[in-house]
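note to self — DONT lose this again. spent like an hour looking for the file last time. sequence + predicted structure for the chain T wanted, 292 res
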Amino acid sequence: MNKIFLLVLIVIGSFSGAYAKIPAAEKQALIDLFESTNGYHWVRKWDLSQPASEWNGIRIAEDHVVEINLFRNNLMGPLPESLGDLKNLTVLNLAFNNITGGFPASLVKLDKLKVLKLEMNRMKGTLPSDIGKMAGLEELSAFNNFFSGRIPESLGDIAGLKVLNLSSNELWGEIPESIGKLTQLESLGLFENTLYGEIPAELGQLSRLKELVLANNKLGGAIPEAFGQLASLKVLQLQNNEFDSFKTLESMDRNQFLVIDYDSKEDRENFKDVDFSRTRMADTKFEDDPDN
């Protein structure tokens, strides 16, 4: 009898956990997202009469929203500032939609967020100067938008960042030296912006860096000697800039590269040409697609 009673309690507990209520502020933030981005025209819509735990792309743990994954779901419109009320959020994947408007300033309050994917939208404006407060970030991907202005210096404060991809935007100015503090960084993409000046020598401190894509900018000067320390580097794309010397590349072990591309024809060896669109950083569109 006691065993039956215990089993009933377990079943009831499991049922209650599945439909646990989230705080009112968190539910309202989700509703705001739905309404602000034309939810009734999403590919996979939410039934707002059902518990939030039943809504597509939402994961709840310990009565809090911890993940939003609405990849390629026809979101249209700006993101609401109330997203900053999702204090326990660890993943926010809104890639491959038609999101407009700016980067919500409230997102910098999400210090538990590990993955922020905004690529392939139509977002604009500047990135928050205090984005470095997002201390938990491991991946920040916002390529193919219309973000403008300078790359925030405070990005260098996100010590655990492994992937930073801001390619194909309208960013301008110099690459911040502070990026050299991101010792966990494995992938850095700043392709196709309007960045100028010399590459900071501090990037040579990124010992775990595997991919560095700086092509299609207005960067100049010489390739830093410190690049010789990048022993983990496999993909290096520097073409279509204004460099006046590639001497440092001559001293690097060419066998370490899977892809290397730069403009100095007389120094360049016969490496396999690989289109940027097929490198892993630019291939993010397939990583979250259930059909691939």
